[in-house]
Prior knowledge:
Blueprint: H1 4-39, E1 47-48, H2 50-57, H3 61-70, E2 79-84, E3 87-93, H4 96-101
Antiparallel strand pairs: 1-3, 2-3
Helix pairs in contact: 2-3
Amino acid sequence: MASPIDSLMGEIKLISSAITTLNDKVELVRHDLDHLIEESVETPNVWLKPAEISKLLGVSKSTITAWRNQGIFDLKISVKTVKRAKRIDHYYHRYNALKDASVVRPAH
């Protein structure tokens, strides 16, 4: 016969597993919602030039570049790199980049 503590531990494991599953599902829904918002005709451009994101954050363009090089911005979801002939342009996702930068500086 299982003790009350063993029974309680089993229930805690079940609840923990359910929470993990729900967190995964919420993340998928958030990703899908972000995609729908980005693709909407009424949504303003979500990819900003360094000058635009720096204005939103109240910092210089060189600070944005430094933060990108330091890994403040998640390069997979917050920065889009576009190669054009001999130069490389970087664009910053309006929402994800602001969220990333809020670690070092809150948006104005």
